[in-house]
Amino acid sequence: MSDALEKAEAAVKEASVDTAAVQLAFAAMELAKMAQQQPAAQPHACDHQHKQGRGTGEWLAIGCAVCVGGVGIAFASIAIAIGGISVAILALVLRSIWTDIRKGK
Q1: For 58-74, what is the mean pLDDT?
Q2: 78-105 burial, b for 16+ CB within 10 Å, e for fewer?
Q3: How far apart are alpha carbons 45 and 49 in whole angstroms?
């Protein structure tokens, strides 16, 4: 610890002797203070119109439309599956009838 203290004391003595360095440090501090006191420059406002984001009502409408569409697709898939099973059963029945007719029963 005393080593660090001795280095600090030597730096203070050197800075107090070197008045040009001290003056530069004070000038830099004053410049920094002045820069902080000046108001920040306002960004240039755009001349074109920005599109507003979607509101809550729009998002709710989109969500409802997606849900209704999903239910519609589900019912359509069930209807296609039932139709496919009906066609398969009909094909088996007709094949059985055709086989019986060809054998002469």
Answers
A1: 94
A2: eeeeeeeeeeeeeeeeeeeeeeeeeeee
A3: 11
